[in-house]
Amino acid sequence: MAAPLLRPEIFQYRVDSLFIHWLKNPIAYGAIVTNINNQRFSYFQRLVNLIRNRKLDTKTDREALERFLTWVNLWDTDRKKDICRSLDYLKRTYPDTDLWEIIKIESE
């Protein structure tokens, strides 16, 4: 998603499609701690964009979203803090307490 050659609009459909397939694959990620280098804001922001653009739905894609959010919740605290604004946006725009509350961000 961060590759400069894949940023032009012509490739966005393909990148989004790959991300959605990865997101919906039940063995792609899950309740395992991942290397900090794989804990990327861009993954979470892509999720936000796909929900906003109606390519993902909080109801029909709920199982995949729950798995992804469970995975994000295992990220390093500083990495989770990076997504606070985007998470707050989701909470305001797509109210679903049970879904967004999967991610627990420790306050200082």
Give a description of the structure.
This protein has about 110 residues and is mostly helical. It has one domain. The protein is about 55% helix and about 0% strand. It contains six helices and no strands. It is globular, with a radius of gyration of 13 Å.
Helix and strand arrangement:
Blueprint lengths: L8 H16 L16 H12 L9 H12 L3 H6 L1 H10 L3 H4 L8
- The helix/strand order is HHHHHH
Mean pLDDT over the full residue set: 86
Gyration radius from CA atoms, angstroms: 13 Å
User: What's the helix count?
Assistant: 6
Anisotropy-based shape: globular
**Largest sheet geometry:** none
> Total strand count, please?
0
Domain module tally: 1
- The parts where pLDDT drops under 50 for at least 5 residues are 2-6
Strand percentage: under 5%
Helix/strand class: mainly alpha
Helix content: 55-70%
Distance between the termini: 31 Å
